Write the structure tokens for this entry.
Amino acid sequence: MRIAIHGRPFRDDAANHVKELYNYLKSRGAQVITYAPFYNYLEETGITVHGEQYSEKEDLSGTDFLMSVGGDGTLLEAVTYVGKLQIPILGINIGRLGFLATTQGEEIKKAVDALYSKDFKYDDRMLIKLVSDEDIFGGVNFGLNELTILKRDSSSMIVVHTYIDGEYLNSYWADGLIISTPTGSTGYSLSCGGPLMLPQLNNFIIAPVSPHNLNVRPMIVSDKSEISFKIEGRSNYFLVSLDSRSKIVSAATKIAVKKEDFKARLVELKGYNYFQTLRNKLNWGLDLRN
């Protein structure tokens, strides 16, 4: 079995989990390919790693699974490398929240065994695609959580004129606007008052960031829609973010979003429960009476 490992620098107390992962994969006879910057980091920290390295998504061709070792940010980055290959991703949480990376460090052996015994199921997640008249993110124009349009700094608010399938929806006077996938509903959108959505739903959430009009509320639209924007403001530039990647863009740039043609395929191990994750990670519905 060919398994890729994608990771970032980690806390000292997580080193044993990383060592255990590599040692156990070796004992199972796995062919391991490691993300090159992570490979170098492990060597610097004294963890000896053997096998191939990858730095481009083309290097992952023929890989059976990708194991994201870190937190949710690491998994979001891993999705950008997998792309159209749709290699199944298993998130191992040695970070903080671990909402998407649902396998804990103590469960590494169990997780590897599940991959070999095929005791899991796939959880396909919709991706959001940025459409623009210039290449903003170096060809990696999709994300798992959200696209965000924001003012650059502490300057005055921006106005985001928003259209759905070419039909005018609203002009948002705000610090910005979030277009979230169902997966991203537990992220930035949630902190701006957006609703929680089950990952399997086929919708986008439009949520303003600090809107000037208090009667403007988050809105749910079909993921079959194309949502386009025109931005105005005192500055000629604004910020566009896809998950954790951000770029400064000219106000003259034409941008829109729609559903990506391919999906992110996550590995869901036996015993995982989305509602339990909501309660445990977000304290959702926390009430002493319960």
